[in-house]
Design brief:
12 strands, alpha+beta, outer membrane lipoprotein receptor (LolB), chain A, 12-stranded mixed beta sheet, disordered C terminus
Length: 266
């Protein structure tokens, strides 16, 4: 069997010194060169779920683009909402194509603004959650990637069990994006609390990029199962306009509500 090719390119955060140099080069270079397409990654993932709607198993496709230290996740369907994450600016932008609207969210500001009894209750519930990650020693070939199995158990406000098959054949680091979206991340509601640090230490035991993740959870008396399976990972030149808001879209303010699946005003 042919050994999967190990991807050599690593997605890294830009270091402070390099950022300064990049700024100088951007000023000196012609505009067309400064905005040239950048090498990045393109990922296709199949998402399956059951138990949430009572209509059997559903399946959909998401396409992920990684470049310029940004991530864009594109969902399928006429009412789907795209998402752009920019850890550099701390902004998460939701794009609703059905409504031709977008909602920029300052993630850090939202986290910092959480106060009062409700926020404290959430912190307590998150702090009570424990995470245990076990590497089983099992390996499996999934597609073109050799993967290792990890079992994850989360207990607390809800019970979650996961079976994660991750590969180190792909040198792809998405830590900044995971931290941005995680409630237990450095900017999350748990921030650098002992509980948050303990949870991050456990999750770091998963080495490599998850190719197949099976999740079982129980919430409000309902059992749900989800499965995400990566089908495509390839290095690809990503044009800058992938991360731009489409022309003619209007901005919604926080508090107005963002129709994630369309609100019928078409």
């Amino acid at each position: 069997m042919t050994k999967p090719r190990r991807t050599s390119t690593r997605l890294r955060s830009v270091q402070t010194g390099r950022a300064g140099l990049s700024l100088i080069l951007a000023v000196l270079l012609p505009l067309s060169a400064a905005l040239a397409d950048a090498p990045g990654f393109y990922i296709e993932t199949i998402n399956r779920s059951s138990g949430m709607t009572g209509e059997g198993t559903t399946e959909d496709l998401t396409k992920t683009y990684l470049a310029y230290d940004k991530m864009k996740v594109v969902s399928e369907g006429p009412d789907a909402t795209d998402m752009i994450m920019d850890p550099g600016s701390g902004t998460l932008t939701l794009i609703n194509h059905a409504e031709k609207q977008f909602l920029p969210i300052d993630v850090k500001a939202v986290m910092e603004s959480m106060s009062g009894p409700a926020a404290e209750q959430m912190r307590n519930m998150m702090g009570d959650m424990t995470i245990r990650v076990e590497e089983t020693g099992e390996t499996k070939q999934i597609g073109e990637w050799k993967t290792k199995q990890y079992r994850v158990k989360k207990t607390g406000m809800m019970g979650v069990e996961q079976e994660v098959w991750a590969t180190e054949d792909v040198d792809l680091d998405v830590t900044r994006f995971n931290d941005m979206m995680s409630l237990s991340g450095p900017e999350g509601v748990l921030s650098n609390s002992p509980a948050g640090q303990a949870q991050r230490v456990e999750m770091k035991k998963i080495k490599g990029y998850p190719i197949l993740t099976k999740t079982k959870m129980e919430m409000m008396g309902t059992e749900m199962e989800t499965e995400t399976e990566v089908k495509v990972i390839r290095e690809e030149v990503i044009p800058p306009d992938v991360f731009e808001i489409p022309e003619g879209y209007s901005m919604r303010e926080m508090g107005m509500g963002m129709p994630l699946q369309g609100d019928g005003h078409r």
